[in-house]
Each structure stands twice: as structure tokens, then as C-alpha cells.
Amino acid sequence: MSRIQITFQQLQAAGRKALIPFITAGDPDGELTVPLMRSLVAGGADIIELGVPFSDPMADGPVIQRSSERALVKGMTLFRVLDIVRAFRSEDTLTPVVLMGYANPIEAMGQSVFVDLARQAGVDGVLVVDYPPEECAEFTANLRAAGLDQIFLLAPTSSEQRFRDVARAGSGYLYYVSLKGVTGAARLDFDEIACRIPRIRDVAKMPVGVGFGISDAEIAKRVGEVADAVVIGSRIVQEIEASPRERACANVETFTRGIRIALDELVGAHS
Question: Does residue 53 belong to any structural domain of this protein?
């Protein structure tokens, strides 16, 4: 059983929701990424999604695009991202880390090389936006053999057949994109989320996290009423962007703790 699966099992036994924050590796610089990851854990994160910066992101809104640009300018690469995970893992053996990014850096490194190095570094899961399940069977098999979870995205437009496809290929959890658009967009349709999540969970038989458009504790709590996990990215990256470097970790921890407190008010609530 993977660290991700163990984490969800423990949370579900306690009636709690998973908090999954996202930051971009190397933003504002490589030296601050591990301290920021520690701050997320101190604030109550259960799983960390660590973004692999890429020059041409297709799903990310302007906030995360800018964070990737800052990281790339500072020389962040996929190899350095794995070094960051290794450094974090040397001090934290419990918190799962999911790398979230795009296919190009993995293809440039080589799929099998990436999987092997990711396993060695202590990565627990991978979410590659542009690897749909029908086009990455070999990658999926390599991840599975290495004991790594592969997380797939589902959208409001996804069919029940798509639910089944990602359920067969994926593991750990599924990431439901709560709106049609890029990260950081607004106007969540809570009724639609409440309708879709139970249907996905029934077909997939694994936890479902919801992300895109979750910007504060109130929204997180409403989403947490029906989802197994709440994913927050742009709002945290925005906090980093707006903070003086010496205040970034403290501000991120404070923001994360506010979300954690709101989600813990749901303890015992039924999904």
C-alpha cells in the first residue's frame, strides 16, 4: 500500500478530509522550496502536490504560469525537482509528495529513467496533465511496478466511460477539475460538484479530490462536504508571489492552517 493510500485510509477512518496544497518547485527559488513544503505540512497539509515548472502549461492559469516562469528563470529542471523531493524526504518520511506537470520534461528525461529516479527520490505519485490513460499504458505499468500512484484528471465534461477508464489506470486518488477553465478561475458550481463526485466515487472506488477555483476556507469547506480531498494551488502560489521572501513560509503556513481548521469542522460528516 502506498503512502498516499495509507494517508487516505487514516483520514477516512478519522472522518477527516485530505488537504492537498500545490506549490511550484523553484518558486521563488530552489532554496526556498523545501522550507515551503515543511510550512505546508506544519499548516496541516496531508499530501503535497509539487509542480514541475514547464514553459508551455496548458491547464494552468496566469498565477501558476508566472510561478513556472520564475522557477525556470532560476534554472529549475526536472532533475532539480527530484533533488528537492529527496531533500524533503530526508526529514519527512510520512507526507506523500505528488509531482504534477506535463509530459515534455519526462519524455526528455526518458520515462523509465524518470520513474526510477522518482522512486529513489521518494516521490509517491505523478499527475501528468497531458498523459491520458489511453496513451500512456507503458508509463502506467512502469509506475505501478515501482510502487508509485498515477493520478488522473477528470473534468465536468467527462463521461462515465471516462470515469471507468481512469479508474482502471489510476491509483491513489482522482483529481476532479471543478470547472471548465484553467487553474485559479472562479465561479464554482457547487450543485454540479455535489452531483458528480458521488457518481465518480461509485465507479472509481477510490478517493476523489477537487481542485481549480478553491481560494478560501469557506469554499474549501463547501467542497469538502462532498469530496474526499480539497486541492488548492493558485491561491497558495499567489501568497508566495505577494510575500517578501523572508515571510513566505510563515504566510503559507498561516493560510494553510486556516483551510485545515475549516476542513476539520467537517469531522464526522458523511461524504
Answer: yes
Kindly report the number of other CB atoms within 10 A of residue 35's CB atom: 13
List the catalytic residue out of 60, 165, 228, 239.
60
Q: Mean pLDDT lowest for which of 27-31, 86-90, 165-169?
A: 165-169
Residue 51 to residue 99: CA distance in whole angstroms? 6
> What is the number of structural domains in the chain?
1
In a domain, 142, yes or no: yes
Candidate list 27, 31, 46, 49, residue with the active-site label? 49
Residue ranges making up the domain that contains 109: 3-264
List the CATH number of the domain containing 119: 3.20.20.70
134 is catalytic: no
* 189 labelled catalytic: no
Q: What is the pLDDT of residues 218-236, one digit of tens each?
A: 999 999 999 999 999 999 9
Helix (H) or strand (E) holding 23: strand 18-24
Report pLDDT digits (tens) over 196-219: 999 998 888 899 999 988 999 999
